[in-house]
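Open question from group meeting: does this chain pack into something compact, or does most of it stay loose? Before anyone orders reagents, we agreed to write out a predicted structure and look at it together. Recording both the input and the output here so the notebook holds the full record.
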Amino acid sequence: MKKLAIAITLALTTAAASVAVVAAVKDEPIKPIRPAQELNLAQVELGKKLYFDPRLSKSGFISCNSCHNLSMGGTDNIPTSIGHGWQQGPINAPTVLNSSLNLAQFWDGRAADLKEQAGGPIANPGEMASNHTLAIEVLQSIPDYVREFELVFGSDKITIDEVTQAIAEFEKTLVTPNSPFDLWLMGDEDALTDKEKAGYKLFKDSGCVACHNGAAVGGNSYQKMGSVEPYQTDNPAEGRVAVTKKDADRFMFKVPTLRNVELTYPYFHDGAAQTLGEAVEIMGRIQLGKKFTEEENAQIVSFLKSLTGDQPSFQMPILPPSNENTPKPEPFDS
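Structure tokens returned:
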């Protein structure tokens, strides 16, 4: 009962603080990131282990964190990710940070939510290259996992539904509040430099904010890559059309979040832009028909860097050991 009372008190305190924050927020098209709320903490702790556990992959080497590295802005900082057997991935890994704010998951939106997304890479032959049956067999063979799943979900029979639910619950915690821009939104005029404020004004006046808005500064719509000028790329991804089968959705991609964008290079679905300055130049030209001066580009880049918030911080999980009954990894099988 004491723990419950403490939990309720914390929840009420958080809710009261949230109300105060909302009341103070500037009227801008971008809203502050708020700390994660309404979490199942037992699922979060289990999901944290699963997120870092490479035994969900066929090789026993690749985990969720391999491509969405929480020490590197929730991505892997290479154009396209490395999958099983050193296969080159087809598309740039989007950041997992603040991904709970997206309208859907993946560049083409083929997963409705984090839970649906979590199951995809496990069974993808180009990513973790396992399958859901084998992944469950691995977890079921580990007594410490069986006990924890029973405590969290009430059954000692592990299911893929529970696995993806736990991973998704952990990923909901990966929000990044308290960026300098958020502090400015909440009334701290000194949180931004004059250069960052000038960059934000340009960002709004130029039309960038039409797609990059809301708390995630993106992630809430699909837009055509190259609406004014065609985007030149060798990447085979064609965007939303792969899901809807409608030709009108060709090269329509989910607008990426710009939160923590200075950490999530390289940029675009093909990872072709190596720097923020390059990304700003290309997007201004092909999306807005604008050519920013060198000074304007630098101002916008300064604003974008002000969107870097508090990074996830937690004690790394200690994974329960395998035993003689655990299926052996196959790191060198094609």
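Observations to bring back to the group:
The chain has a mean pLDDT of 93.
The longest helix spans residues 2-24.
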